[in-house]
Amino acid sequence: MAQEADRTPGGSRKHSPAWTAALVLGGIRSGKSDFAEGLATEAAAGGVVRYVATAQTDPADEAWQQRIEAHRARRPAGWTTEELEDPTDLLVALRTAEAGEVLLVDDLGGWATRLLPLTAEERRERIDALGRSVAACAGQVVLVSPEVGLSLVPATESGADFADLVGEINQIVADAADRVALIIAGQTSWLKPPGGPSADGAPARPVSTSQPAQAVEMDVPEVITPVAEPDTAGGALTEPTMALPMIATGLVIQANMELPLPDEEAERDAKARLGALDLPGSGFGKLAKPIRFAAATQRAATPHPWRSVRMMLLYADHEGNIAAGVDVGDSAHWAAQARAGAGPIGLLAARTGATIQVVDAATAGDIEWVDAATPEAVEAGLRHGWRLAEEAVDAGVDLIALGSCGAGADTVAATLISAMTSAELAALLGRRVSADGSVDDNSWMLRCAAARDALNRLREDTLSPKMLLARIGGVDFAIAVGILLGATARRTPVLMDGPVAIAAALLARDLAGQVRHWCLLPDAGGDPATLQGADVLGLEPFLDLRLGLGEGASALAALPLIQSAISLAQTTMAAGAPATGRVAAPESADGVPVEEAEEKADLDAADGLE
Hints:
Layout: E1 21-26, H1 32-44, E2 49-53, H2 62-74, E3 80-83, H3 87-96, E4 102-106, H4 108-115, H5 120-136, E5 140-146, H6 157-176, E6 179-184, E7 187-192, E8 223-224, E9 241-242, H7 264-275, H8 288-298, E10 309-315, H9 328-339, H10 343-352, E11 355-360, H11 375-394, E12 399-404, H12 409-421, H13 425-428, E13 432-433, E14 439-440, H14 441-456, H15 465-473, H16 475-489, E15 494-495, H17 499-509, E16 519-520, H18 528-537, H19 553-575, H20 594-609
Parallel strand pairs: 1-5, 1-6, 2-3, 2-4, 4-5, 10-11, 10-12, 12-15, 15-16
Antiparallel strand pairs: 6-7, 8-9, 13-14
Helix pairs in contact: 3-5, 4-6, 5-6, 7-8, 8-19, 9-10, 10-19, 11-15, 11-16, 12-14, 12-17, 12-18, 15-16, 16-17, 17-18
């Protein structure tokens, strides 16, 4: 195998490392494999190359076997070889590649032959997944493929089918790669970038968000304070921002952590006081629940309305059919609106005086075929979420609301809830309903199939929280779990809304059982996954708003009602008038009623005389 390192385009092997994915095209005996091997050797800088072989062996075809053996013989002894058994193996190899690794895939024609028995829809899914996997590959990858567009039109139907399929694959991969070379008679023509690499190297693709660099800590998102202008129709919102400092915690998040619990005695006292208040009718009704919750989490029998509320809106898209029915452009639009203090989240936050923090996370992989994130990314996400909660509390926040706007996140949440509660998946997936009331059944079927395939990949796994986050959830769910854990550690309640928050609470519960006691769910919105998860967590929603404005909007819409109830309870409790109309007994300095204290003193004196 030729491994020269000083030839230039038209035979160049001297390439800048500023590329991530390269596609090498060529006809039969064009020298494309030789060129690709040299490119991979240079990229590895003498290290190990993972050679991914796609060809299917056929002992009955002696000539074909000889070609395979010739390829094997010329590979350096230090390279590792992975032979595909299934088309999805290539997607897994690309998705599991780590930064610093070099993969050589030879060739995509062999991979195409494995797709031929599939239906047109199944082929399309796998080809699209290949393009996403190439774009998301954390290492450097060189892919070899036959250029079928310059040959004669195949004389057979199967030959034409193969040529069409390879042509489609080449277009998708070429679009995802940042370098494309065409090899003709051993000579190289650079198609992308045009004219070959410059002296500074080819422009690099943006780093994939599916597999973030593990050594770099995530940035703290800015905090938005929307300000309502009620006199202007559709009033504009301003967004003063505050950059929060990073806190080096060095914490280790693991199972069976001992975190604090709310004050049960304060909750009992609040319940008793609510029953004795001078109020008409049946009193607070279902709003007594958040009042008692506030008492327990504030460790005060007479709670006060929360003074500083922050909406943490998770934004990360999930690839593949798990997000069917939602355009990723829509999720980006909703996140941008929230950042600007606009849209449903921004407007509701402005009316309630809440701040907004849009928390960007890595795009999750297509869980039909590959893991959502690496274990390292999950660990980083957990720590990042914990730090966000700590920094919010340090900034004076005493209530965190959790929301989500990522494409496919709700379906991933339902998949996680199904895995953790053994509930039937199809029953947990709600239909997508448009503004005009039409129901999208086709996207439901695609989402259901994708989620079932994802669950099928878990058959041999232990359902630990971190494993579920890596295989199914992704970095956004890891951050949500970290926020819940960090808030619990700092005795700060969390307002829940929707399946993402509930799925995160189920995962957090398995790391620290105390988490669920700091969660309040005002409304399940009729969502079956939310109801299922809430039932397991012991969270009973007390409203039924059924808003469809995005996850997090219901919590903000319910917040003024909850705050009003707590404020009324606080004022009435302070007045001290019981339901009988009697004046409340005065208390001594230590909080014990004076009459009770005097009776106790008399008994103590009697004991002394005896």
